[in-house]
Design a protein that fits this description.
heterodimer, A: 468 residues, mainly alpha, 3-stranded antiparallel β-sheet, 17 helices, 3 strands, 75% helix, B: 240 residues, alpha/beta, 4-stranded antiparallel β-sheet, 9 helices, 10 strands, globular, binds magnesium ion
């Protein structure tokens, strides 16, 4: 009997006009999104390798360490391959972090800054389609699951037989879910195929696992709306009411809660603006530089008599002194910047965490953050990258300062030609899967709990549902 | 056999739906319950199907208490509802197939379905058409076919003739007579006393939830139906 109910439910769904419409729209949207994701990634990958080569050439062509220090180095953020399905904040954050002696490194030159109109629309990635479009489809497939059968009189007719109610709702849930999966699975499998055969996409073993987890999260997310739809349809006596209630719930879950969470968090945990932070850093930089110049002048004045006696020895001592002083100043600046930055990051982190956690009561936010974490295109990944660049900066400064000191011949004023072979390289240790998974556990957990609650709610409501 | 013992339904809002109905419909009998809108006919049928719980009293199908063991009781009853839309995306045969399976009849062939659908007077062309384009009468016929296929010992019909044209109405009554002759207990609610009289073995008159009068076919023979109609549809019931 359960099989008959499931079969009927699937047949009823796939012969309906909404199914054809859903199937077509799903296929088009999913394929277009994955296709654009793949081409975008290809282009960015190309740009990235080109930028790396250009940077290297640029560095090598510098005549001396002085000008090398002047231009600094550029650290490029590599595009994430899973950004093809979950774009995250890839487009919004910068792709390049210039590192030099003076300034504190930051990511600049984002895609949105060069083409701000994109920011208005956001990326059409698979995650967006699942979050907005497919969740609506899940509602479309369930809003009249129970109440619609009541209105058609088929519920009474079915229950005039010795059909247990729990069997009926179970059959409807399973059948309904399968019919929702059909229009999803086919384009999703096709898009996996695209990822598999696209020439510029190379998914490592771990990426496949991540992709699988992302897809799992998509299905959990849709199941939340599916079970919510079932629940509401078993609690209303008119399908129009059910649809309105669900639409309202959808707006609140997908649109309102995430935005509200950000507003609440920024009120509850205010942070200094970026301008304030930069001004503070600049003020200290100027002060230190002035002081440095003064000390250097004083030192040279003190040494004047000695210099006259032994110019060669003075030359060596001057070189040593300048090198030490430079190193000292730089580390003072670094320390101060780091302190300011730490404070700022701490506050920003607290605000971010609050906003994220508040919004996570909405499965839409859980999906957003969870899938971004799994795809490594989220805020944390960006923070990690920036932190790695910032910890690379002192390593680089130390190297360039030492080179700088060594290379100047103070007698002739000549400078040695450069070699960047021993220049320390920036490295970013990618986040381990176990760590990403750990961070997404709350998201998976939340969705699972919601599905359970809604389904049990639907089940219990249906056992007492007024079929008339 | 259908039996109601002191069956009473008071709705949550205090409205009395059925007031102490005691009634027996024997095998091989057609009982027509006659009453205006809101008299309590549908309430009676809903109680027999356990769609609503009784306030007091008992409804029995084949001696099984409907409220205590609804699943077992429902095995022995077919139901034709007042206004069933059925599955619009399905054809007549697909609808019939699904509900026969729910009724536990899984070995029926397409020919069997065709036979039943012909019996209730559905045109052959309509068998494989989607029900969403059916008229009310065509859907009603399909609903009757669904009840026939179940072939239970008891049949509950809620105003089944309301959507039928005269020709179909006559055919339908013939089908009911056939069922009675095969020993079924038939309970039909209607406000069409003129048609009901043609086939009923007994007629009950109901108003405001109470069965106020019962007549056998014999007693009805000489009676002026128009008189009865006016008396029981429009006047206050005689004070008991
Ligand atoms: N769910 C309900 N809640 C309250 N009153 C109801 C409900 N259903 C029916 N009634 C009332 O019970 C009475 C009998 O209704 P019903 O059995 O549907 O009449 P009939 O089928 O004879 O037209 C009517 O007065 C109706 O208003
Ligand atoms: Mg009625």
């Amino acid at each position: 009997m359960l099989r008959d109910i499931i079969r009927k439910e699937i047949l009823d769904n796939i012969t309906s006009p909404k199914f054809v419409f859903t199937f077509l729209l799903c296929t088009i949207l999913i394929l277009v999104s994955v296709y654009t994701g793949v081409t975008n990634y290809g282009a960015e990958r190309k740009e990235y390798t080109a930028a790396l080569a250009l940077n290297k050439k640029n560095l090598e062509s510098q005549p001396n360490y002085n000008s090398l220090a002047g231009i600094g180095v550029k650290v490029n953020k590599p595009p994430q391959v899973l950004g093809t399905v979950v774009n995250g904040i890839e487009e919004a954050v910068g792709r390049v972090a210039p590192v030099n002696i003076a300034a504190d490194p930051n990511l600049i030159d984002s895609k949105y800054s060069s083409n701000p109109v994109f920011a208005v629309f956001g990326p059409l990635d698979l995650m967006f389609i699942v979050k907005i479009v497919l969740s609506l489809f899940a509602i479309l497939f369930t809003y009249d699951a129970i109440v619609g059968e009541k209105e058609r009189g088929t519920l009474k007719l079915a229950l005039s037989n010795d059909v247990p109610r729990d069997r009926l709702i179970l059959g409807k849930a399973i059948g309904g879910y399968i019919s929702l999966l059909i229009p999803l699975l086919i384009p999703l499998l096709l898009s996996l195929l695209i990822l598999l055969i696209a020439p510029n996409i190379h998914l490592a073993g771990q990426d496949w696992l991540r992709l699988l987890l992302i897809f799992l999260m998509f299905f959990l997310y849709l199941s939340v709306f599916f079970s919510l739809g079932l629940f509401v349809s078993a609690r209303t006596s008119r399908s129009s009411t059910s649809f309105l209630v669900l639409l309202f719930a959808w707006v609140v879950i997908v649109m309102v809660i995430p935005k509200l969470a950000v507003i609440v968090a920024s009120q509850a945990r205010p942070i200094p603006s970026v301008h304030e932070v930069t001004a503070k850093k600049d003020a200290f930089l100027q002060q230190i530089q002035q002081e440095g110049q003064k000390t250097a002048r004083e030192w040279i004045q003190q040494q004047q008599t000695e210099a006259a006696k032994d110019p060669k020895g003075f030359q060596d001592r001057l070189r040593k002194y300048i090198e030490d002083l430079q190193q000292d100043l730089t580390s003072q600046i670094d320390a101060n910047n780091a302190a300011i930055e730490r404070d700022y990051q701490l506050k920003k982190g607290a605000q971010q965490t609050l906003a994220v956690n508040l919004s996570r009561v909405s499965p839409a936010s859980a999906l957003t953050f969870g899938s971004m974490t799994l795809a490594r295109t989220g805020v944390d990944e960006f923070d990690r990258f920036l932190a790695s660049v910032r910890s690379y900066k002192p390593v680089y400064t130390k190297w360039i300062n030492s080179k700088f000191g060594e290379s100047i011949n103070f007698q002739t004023g000549e400078m040695a030609t450069i070699s960047i072979d021993d220049m320390p390289q920036h490295v970013l240790e990618p986040e381990r899967l176990s760590r990403s998974l750990l961070r997404t556990l709350p998201d998976f957990g939340l969705m699972a709990v919601m599905i359970l609650v809604f389904f049990v709610g639907a089940y219990a409501s249906f056992l007492r549902y007024d079929v008339r | 056999m259908l039996e109601a013992i002191d069956l009473t339904k008071r709705y949550e809002d205090g409205m009395i739906g059925l007031d102490s109905l005691t009634l027996k419909v024997e095998p091989g009998e057609i009982f027509c319950m006659f009453g205006a809108n809101g008299a309590g006919k549908t309430t009676t049928i809903n109680l027999f199907l356990d769609f609503i719980p009784p306030t007091s009293g008992t409804a029995l199908i084949e001696g099984i208490d409907v409220h205590k063991d609804p699943l077992k009781a429902k095995r022995h009853v077919s139901f034709v509802s007042e206004n069933v839309m059925l599955y619009g995306n399905f054809t007549a045969v697909q609808n019939l197939d699904y509900f026969s399976r729910l009724a536990g009849k899984r070995s029926l062939t397409k020919a069997d379905y065709g036979e039943v659908l012909t019996r209730v007077g559905l045109q052959k062309e309509a068998f494989d058409r989607r029900v969403k384009n059916f008229s009310k009468g065509m859907r009603q016929k399909l609903g009757i076919a669904i009840a026939l296929v179940k072939d239970a010992a008891n049949i509950l019909l809620d105003e089944p003739t309301s959507g039928l044209d005269p020709q179909s109405g006559r055919e339908f009554l013939e089908t009911l007579v056939q069922m009675r002759d095969r020993g079924k207990s038939v309970f039909m609610s209607t406000h069409d006393i003129f048609r009901a009289k043609l086939i009923a073995d007994r007629v009950g008159f109901m108003r405001k939830g109470r069965l106020v009068m019962m007549k056998t076919a014999k007693e009805l023979e000489g009676a002026d139906l128009t008189d009865l109609y006016i008396q029981y549809m429009e006047e206050e019931p005689p004070v008991a």
